[in-house]
Amino acid sequence: MEHLPELVEPVGGATLMEQAYHRLKRDIIELRRPPGDRFTEQQVAEAWGFSKTPVREALARLHRDGLVQPIRRAGYVVAPVTLADAAELCDMRTLLQGEAAARCAASGLPPERLFRLQALSSDDGYGQLAGPHLSERLKQNFEFEAIIANGAGHERLAAAIADIFDEIERIVRITVQLAPALSADRTRARHAIVTAIESGDAKRAGTAMRTRAESAKREILDALALSPGVASAPITVTGS
Fold it and tell me: Known Pfam families for this protein (predicted)?
């Protein structure tokens, strides 16, 4: 079974609860409901023509995911994004994808998968991730990562990586709004990973992927630090 982030393979949902869950999740990830947005289950149900029950169940699931927080007698609020959360997600990405890249190189990819990975390793954009093609460029980036994750031959690892990218997507979209410029080394880093996988060099593939992920973490945290909310947050110190 192949595991893919939702942006690569959208999930509609078979039940009304699943439909409400995935629709709300995409609204939150794609910032149509930005951090701090407040709403009630009744407002969502009325807007979509759903009964309150599937919306309530969907919100309970989103609460478990950490995407919404209940407000006593006042509905829900979209969970904030913090530097600590972003750093932890990026660290998880580094650990999991570094291992996946090493395993992928060791086991090898089928020719058609390797060809697709090579095609996705180039970025012919105009120096920015932001703009009208943001979703498509993010989709291509996540597909690149997913090919490597699934090529590791470890289903639980691939599933965990897909989940991580669903969470990271919201953070990346916020990052792009704050700092839209692309790193000049982005394409070079992808090529290094593909070359190592193509040659079957597990150690080099793992190192190249971790280097790329750690660079992305620095970009994300530097961009989030530009947020007015971060800049105005009080500085605390612990007592000696």
Answer: FCD (PF07729), GntR (PF00392)
d(CA 45, CA 54): 9
**Predicted model pTM:** 0.89
For residues 31 and 111, membership in a common domain is answered with no
In a domain, 240, yes or no: no
pLDDT of residue 232 exceeding 80, the answer is no
Distance CA 27, CA 33 (A): 6
- The shares of helix, strand and coil residues in the chain, as percent rounded to the nearest 5, are 65, 5, 30
Same domain flag for 54 and 100: no
3-class DSSP state of 27: helix
- Phi/psi of residue 128, each to 5°? -135, 145
Q: What percent of the chain clears pLDDT 70, i.e. is strictly above it?
A: 90
- The residue range of the domain holding 70 is 16-78
* Together in a domain, 143 and 24: no
